[in-house]
Amino acid sequence: MLGHHLQVNRESASELLCLVTPRELLRRHRIWLEQYRRARDHLEHLTERFPGQPRTDWRGDANAITGTVAGVRRDGFFVFQREEWNITDTSIAQLSEIVSALVDGIGAEVKARLDGYLRGESAIWKSSAR
How do residues 29-41 score in pLDDT, each as one tens digit? Predict the structure, then answer.
């Protein structure tokens, strides 16, 4: 029975992407989150940054070689190739708050839309804010 109520046609499928919560959280936290996207990009291509690889900063020869070694400083920053990212408890707490707000917000939006739909007040995925 629930499956019958949740049938989504092509028009309403595009409305599903119109949730307010993800857009609003991204707008508010874009700069802060961007630094961690860059960290992911760095680590995703980690093997390309090893000595002898295309994206390395290692220079020298068998007698003398210099380059970046990844590590965590005592102040809680991960450092790699002149970039650094906060990995302290404060940073983890902020990320946890953003994730919780995302989950709670999407849950509330979907519940409100489903409740309105079941009461016959609106289409299930009709966006409330654009």
Answer: 999 888 888 888 8
The owner of tokens 């936290």 is: 29
Cα separation, 13 vs 55, in Å, equals 41
- 113 by Cβ neighbours in 10 Å (0-12 / 13-18 / 19+) ranks as buried
What is the pLDDT, as a whole number, of residue 123? 63
Structure letter (DSSP) for residue 48 = G
Domain locations in the chain? Answer: 19-56+71-130
- How far is the C-alpha of 114 from the C-alpha of 116, rounded, in Å? 5
Burial 13-23 (b: 16+ CB within 10 A, else e): eeeeeebebee
- pLDDT tens, residue by residue, 11-28: 444 455 578 999 899 999
